[in-house]
Design goal:
5-stranded mixed sheet, 410 residues, 7-stranded mixed sheet, Rossmann fold, 28% helix, 9 helices
Length: 410
């Protein structure tokens, strides 16, 4: 487009010169000279357009995989001269897709501020470093482009999106642990007042805090300290080399979403959730065990899962050895894509003390590009060994809808 404008300006000046020579109209020579000097004037205005501008970028505080979010750029112009024809371009990783191929032009009034918003689609959870972006100004004729690199270090954390509620299959209705049959107990029912929270269907009407309800207009109930600690323990396998599949459809991504879904569901029902993490480069700064309740604890779990990658060197059987004793009735859920030899024996330590143990096996052979990793006989042997130590094997396979479908292995 710039070449066309140069040709147009040159052709216009040439025509004026020809007409001036034919008609002996000297004033047309001046018009041709003015036409030729316009690019120089336009160049000077464009060169000054980026001078003195203060630009800041605001990343979204809560970004979720699979959703759209907004990155906001704020531009302050302290000078008495307005700035026109500005645009901002930023390079994004493959998993962050801009909503527009071309960013729109915008102007900043004299001694004023302006904002421009870049909508992006977040295809995968993760932590993305942002180092800077490029701001460009066009001259009034649109012939020249002037760019300025704006350094702005930041970190965009994209949390895994928990899926719909999942009910792990049970062999009997009277089993202990986190499940429908014990959801009321998980919320507490002893005599020691522990706090006040929002009413959840199934709460006893005798526990409604009428004074708080009348003051806030929201139905609230009194929560009591539990006499027995009910707990859900989640252990995703982050061993190096166990992320089978491609793109967002890998055993690792399924395990992360399963962990996020189960944690969210249990915390919303009042349970105590403990996430066991290996010592890995992607989780530096996180403790090996995240234990707690409430929305703040869920946010901490999702932050760890956003960073989790299959880069640990600790096998699952060894990682389970660092958990310690689990009280009777604790629900332990292990997620792995490996039929590790020593894993059933490691789980037997918990089943022997009354813990309710489930192992979710993410079959790598069902994920795209993963190939057939385990023979059916080896997988059957692994499931039989789990059943022998009273651990419940569950199977997850990849599907076209990327839905988390769990089936129990009898």
């Amino acid at each position: 487009m710039q070449y066309h404008k140069w040709i147009f300006l040159g052709f216009g000046a040439l025509c004026l010169v020809i007409v001036a020579s034919l008609l002996n109209a000297e004033h047309l020579y001046y018009m041709a000279a003015i036409l030729l000097t316009l690019p120089a004037i336009s160049y000077g205005l464009g060169w000054c357009a980026l001078r003195g501008l203060k630009v800041t970028r605001t990343l979204p505080p809560d970004a979720w995989a699979g959703e759209e979010s907004e990155i906001v750029y704020s531009i302050e112009n302290p000078s008495p001269v307005a700035r026109f024809f500005l645009t901002i371009r930023e390079g994004f990783p493959d998993w962050i897709v801009p909503g527009r191929a071309e960013t729109p032009l915008f102007n900043v009034q004299a001694q004023g501020t302006a904002q421009t918003i870049q909508r992006v689609r977040l295809k995968r959870r993760g932590v993305y470093r942002t180092e800077g972006f490029e701001m460009t100004a066009m001259d009034p004729l649109g012939v020249f482009a002037f760019s300025r690199r704006v350094l702005s270090d930041g970190e965009l954390v994209v949390y895994p999106m928990p899926g719909p509620s999942i009910r792990l299959p049970l062999s009997g209705a009277d089993r202990y642990g986190w499940q429908d049959t014990t959801s009321a107990a998980l919320r507490g029912s002893s005599v020691d007042l522990d706090g006040i929270r929002t009413y959840v269907p199934g709460d006893s009407l005798r526990r409604i805090h009428w004074r708080q309800t009348a003051r806030t207009g929201t139905l609230t109930v009194m929560e009591f300290e539990e006499t027995v600690s009910q707990q859900l323990v989640l252990v995703p396998d982050l061993l190096q080399g166990t992320a089978y599949g491609a793109g967002t459809e890998t055993t690792l991504e399924y395990a992360v979403r399963l962990t996020a879904t189960l944690a969210k569901q249990a915390l919303e029902e009042g349970a105590e959730v403990r996430l066991i993490l290996p010592n890995s480069p992607s989780l530096q700064g996180y403790p090996s065990s995240l234990n707690g309740r409430g929305q703040d604890h869920l946010h901490l779990i999702l932050g760890a899962l956003a960073r989790a990658e299959a880069d640990a060197t600790t096998p699952m059987s060894e990682l389970l050895g660092s958990i310690g004793e689990l009280a009777s009735g604790t629900r332990l859920v292990v997620m792995t894509a490996k039929t590790e030899r020593g894993l059933p024996e490691a789980l037997s330590r918990f089943t022997s003390t009354g813990a309710d143990v489930s192992l979710i096996y993410l079959d790598p052979s069902t994920f795209p590009g993963a190939g057939r990793r385990k023979a059916p006989a080896e997988r059957s042997r692994f499931f039989s060994e789990l059943l022998a130590v009273h651990a419940r094997p569950l199977l997850v396979e990849a599907n076209a809808e990327q839905e988390l479908r769990i089936q129990e292995i009898a």
